[in-house]
Specification:
single chain, 264 residues, alpha/beta, eight-stranded mixed beta sheet, two-stranded antiparallel ribbon, 8 helices, 21% strand, disordered C terminus
């Protein structure tokens, strides 16, 4: 007479593999990192060195000119305009003074009909307006500019951005008060996911007299989960996209071909 199934001895199951354990853990905890919305630059030399493969849209990113000059400030603003141009919806730009040049923003891909302007009396009001814009969830980007921002204030902006698809871009200006020592905008800690320096570089030479496409020295001073780096880029075109100078692009392509031959 066959034994009852409940009385049969249990056979020990084989131990799970590492891959199976990882899959089980992912099913339990989820993988929020993979689900975070990201805006790639479309340049392998930049995207592959960013921890998220591009700029996180649900995060705060800080940008500053490489130096205190107005030209570097303008480059930093156009860098943010190019990012906002490639975002998905209307853009709220909160300013402390009316110094935005609409034709310049348009050349960087940010059309006037997408822009909403707000003027703040001080940094506190500017940060409050940015936070309100991020919580609205109906904007593609929220941009502001400030000199003094505390760590708790940046944490509030980061928390307001999380869970949405509105990228937060904060321009940190150099201090220009007469007689005061110059301070580096990123000297204080911040909850920003990335912090960028943008500086002007010599433009591309032309065969005829004139000025070629503007070039910038783009430096990632800090990123969460990754290393800093810097590279030379060409300013955004009318779609908001950066480009590598031809020499750097050719060098990257040659390196890729060499690696392919080595692997073969």
């Amino acid at each position: 007479m066959p034994a009852h199934p409940a009385l049969l001895p249990l056979r020990p199951s084989p131990p799970p593999t590492v891959a199976e354990l990882r899959e089980t853990l992912r099913a339990i905890t989820g993988d929020g990192h993979d689900r975070r919305p990201v805006l790639p630059f479309g340049i392998g030399a930049i995207d592959t060195r960013l921890a998220d493969g591009g700029l996180r849209l649900d995060a705060l990113h800080e940008v500053a000119g490489a130096g205190p000059g107005w030209s570097d400030d303008a480059a930093a603003m156009l860098f943010m305009a190019g990012i906002a141009a490639r975002a998905w919806g209307p853009v709220l730009w909160v300013v402390r003074r009316q110094d935005l040049f609409a034709p310049g923003l348009y050349q960087a891909g940010l059309a006037p009909h997408r822009l909403l302007y707000a003027e703040a009396r001080d940094d506190a009001e500017l940060l409050a307006l940015m936070e309100e814009g991020l919580r609205h969830r109906g904007l593609g980007a929220v941009i502001g500019e400030a000199r003094r921002v505390s760590m708790p204030a940046t944490r509030r902006l980061q928390l307001a951005a999380e869970g949405g698809r509105t990228v937060a871009l904060l321009l940190r200006r150099h201090k220009r008060d007469g007689g005061c020592e110059e301070t580096e905008p990123f000297s204080a800690p911040s909850a920003a996911v990335t912090r960028w320096h943008v500086g002007c570089a010599p433009s591309a030479p032309l065969r005829v007299a004139g000025i070629g496409r503007a070039r910038w020295r783009l430096a990632l001073a800090r990123q969460r989960g990754g290393d800093p780096f810097d590279t030379l880029v060409e300013a955004p075109d009318d779609t908001g996209r950066l480009a590598l100078p031809a020499a750097l692009a050719d060098r990257s392509a040659a390196t890729g071909r060499a690696r392919t031959r080595a692997a073969a």
